[in-house]
Amino acid sequence: MTGNDRFEARDIARVAVFAGIIAVLGLMGPIPVPGLVPITAQTLGVMLAGTVLGWKRGGAAVAVVFLLAAVGLPVLSGGRGGLGVFLGPASGYLIGWLPAAIVVGLIAHAGARRLVWWRVALGAVIGGIAVIYAFGIPVQAAVTGMSLGDTALTSLAFLPGDIIKAVIATALTMVLYRAYPPAFPASVRRSRRVVQTA
Questions:
Q1: Can you give the pTM of this predicted structure?
Q2: How many angstroms separate the CA atoms of 52 and 16, rounded?
């Protein structure tokens, strides 16, 4: 692990805060969609964890949420928790959160350069939408007995809402980047200072 990659003591607090944000977004409860997996706001928190914290810390925040859910705490949408949440039609979408946060962070923080809006947006779309669908659709198809094609078509109902979440995540990240750099890992803060003094 390089010096730029090392967790700082306050990174634990950042991870805890974003795990809390993901859990709080679940308080809104799922929006039921007849015959489909319910829509939740928690994927917005997953996108933000990756765009703000980067791949390691963002992934760690999601892993904390998974751990809390696995031991039975009601941290998922609708107050759900327990090992049963990792089974069923929606479980693939849930499991996809972890690789999603990692991919979002890898793209948004590529090379630990300063954050730019288009890379943050690209990370949110590829990681926060495409990766989650890549995990969710096959699992939903397997559990429900639908074909992959039919399941993918029904999943298009989620796309407008997910695109809105990606836009919100991008906007919030860029506002936070300008207004409160300490929210970001040290490598991003350093690159921002270099740009400002150049």
A1: 0.89
A2: 13
Instruction: Please return the burial class of 98, using the count of CB atoms within 10 Å of its CB with bins 0-12, 13-18 and 19+.
Output: buried
Domain boundaries, the chain: 3-197
Tokens of 56: 């390691």
Cα 106 to Cα 99, 131, 184: the distances in Å are 10, 13, 14
Assigned CATH topology for domain 3-197: Arp2/3 complex 21 kDa subunit ARPC3 (1.10.1760)
Closest among 127, 122, 12 to 63, alpha carbons compared: 12
Measured distance CA(168)–CA(4) in Å, rounded: 28
Segment 136-158, tens digit of pLDDT: 999 999 999 999 999 999 888 88
104-128 per-residue burial string, b: 16 or more CB within 10 A, e: under 16: bbbbbbeebebbeeebbbbbbbbbb
Give the angle subtended at the CA of 161 by the CAs of 141 and 129, to the nearest 5°.
55
CA distance to 37, 50, 86, 189, per residue, from 92 (Å): 10, 19, 8, 34
- The DSSP call for residue 39 is B
The conformation of residue 36, written as its DSSP 8-state character, comes to S
Q: With CA atoms as reference, report the closest residue to 92 among 146, 37, 22, 40.
A: 37
Q: Is the pLDDT of residue 60 over 80?
A: yes
What is the C-alpha to C-alpha distance for residues 97 and 113, in angstroms, rounded to an integer? 24
